[in-house]
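Notes continue from the previous slide.

Worked example: a multi-chain complex. Inputs as given:
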Amino acid sequence: MTEITAQSIDDALRKQLDALNTSVESREVGTVIQVGDGIARIDGLKNAMAGELLEFTGVDGQTVYGLAQNLEEDEVGAVLLGDVTAIKENDQVKTTGRIVEVPVGRAMLGRVVNALGMPIDGKGPIQTDATRPVEFKAPGVIARQPVGEPMQTGILAIDSMIPIGRGQRELIIGDRQTGKTAIAIDAVINQKGEDMICIYVAIGQKASTVAGLVETLEKHGAMEYSIIVAATASDSAPLQYIAPMTGAAIGEYFMYNGTDGKPASKENPGGHVLCIYDDLTKQAVAYRQMSLTLRRPPGREAYPGDVFYLHSRLLERAVKMSDENGGGSLTALPIIETQAGDVAAYIPTNVISITDGQIFLVTDLFFQGQRPAVDVGISVSRVGGSAQTKAMKQVAGSLRLDLAAYRELQAFTQFGSDLDKATQQQLNRGAHMTELLKQGRYVPMPFEEQSIAIYSGSHGYLDDIPVVDVVRFRGELLDYLRAAHAQILADLRSTKKFTDAIEKDLNAAIEQFKQQFAPTAQD
Amino acid sequence: MPTNRHIAKAEADLYAQALIEALKNEGGLDAVMLVRSQLEQILAYNRSHVDLTDAMADMAYTPEERSALIKRVFADCQPALQSVLGVMAERGDIDKLPRVWESYNRQVSEQMHITVVDVTTRVPLDDRLRQVIKEKAGADFGEDVVLREQIDPTILGGIIMSANGKRIDASVTTLLEGARNVLKKTTDGGEC
């Protein structure tokens, strides 16, 4: 343990006092006219900028920061970010000349921070050297390149049919309790060893939920490459409003800089970041509250007119940088909660139109035991196809169409007419493939195992297995391959495609396994 | 009553102009400065007494009652200011007071070619320091400078100067507060 001496205390104090800035600067000053509901109206501050950080000084000298939002002829409307009760009428407000910034850096990995980047996990201060503005203009066309690298979620149904690429914006949408967060968390857990930094932004959630999530990530060893930004339900609306932007700012640091902390370039590649915004519905609600208390005119569903811009400028920060700019990426997985499956509501339609695809989760499927409850019929990835491995493309190419045909036939056969053999076969295959897509929580599958699972289904190896045994068959087959035919998995991992040799070995291995597989006894 | 903002601005200008004209006849620069100070106090008082502000603008009272209320509450103010406030209350224009204050300052500066600099110190200024401040501020603003001095023991030392919405704070309390923030930033960091 370090010994504390008078000399060390003296040195520490001197070092801190050296950091003091005793220069005097001229600042624009205004006066609080009215304060309430987390909003302050300020007289003066004629030169305040939109979004500028304002410094409020309370009666007892306490400093509270605020954001200038409404710049009107006579006054400025600002939202308060700290202790709103410390500010009273006639208190002084100063402009700062800067916008809100948050600390960023590698020291934040494994930590839980609030919307201002301050630690809330009780693990002490975070020593970072850099800060980034929460509002940052997204890179332009020249600085980008098309999405082309896969971002594996480890979830069979998603990676096979709705593939997500690094730098993509894929919406996860569904009613409450349909497994939206579970998909995001599985995606985080699957990034272990993938050179990906994960940022989970919890907006308006219960603190206990966030604590549970941190525990889950720690249990699966995912916290070491993750950062949690939490603006819980008890935080003020402005904090819930800036939390996603804080998450994006923290992520951008890793993307725009190499591992050495210097700007990314061709020689110094930028990092890859996965940013989950859980959920943007609550951010929109917080922004609506802020806007209404700022007396901005309400629009559809009482949201302000610029709520689309709020989400579009946030999601536009998801990017795959060009090689000249380091080739880093920021993948965004925004989450939207719908009410009774109403995707035509204002915020869902907005975010659907902004993102590059969506994963729809359906309550009915969830309660039918189809988990993850992804409705593959209406879920889509607009750019992910080019970010899929060749092996997956080879086996999953027709899967979506087969399942669509199966659902159509299934609806038709409910009328109970006699079926020809081909139709029966198609129904049987569809039922097996649907069953194959079921997957438990926190058990992400690497792409080679996913490919083999779908290969076994699409090549008819599951057709004569009872449907209830499909998931068990899949698990045991993969165990068998890992134990007895690890070379097939290794070859598939390295070549990333099904070569003739791999197919031959795999067919033989599956046949061999089927002979020893014991189906569950049927009554 | 909703009105066009240009009309509201013109009305505020008119109130301010009437007040300045009256003060020029009554006591010149000293009266103008006294009313500036009183107007500032009234604005601060109104902000922290919402009931009074509401009562002064309440149309349930007759114009005469509103005017009488104003004259009673601000009985210690300069008579010209009392009269203008009374008229504003009668006409239901008391909510325009912040605009009148702004217009008053602007017109004083334009008509009398002066800039008012509020100076706050711990101890009274001596003549030498007063002269130094006047010369420095006069050079900056290009106008004659009128100092409005205030003694505030809570600033401990140093000086605070403000003019035209800008503020230069070189008080000891602000410097100490800055030091406190620097020290706090390097030691804090747990739960917050």
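Summary box: Chain A has a mean pLDDT of 91. Residues 59 and 91 of chain A are 7 Å apart (CA to CA).
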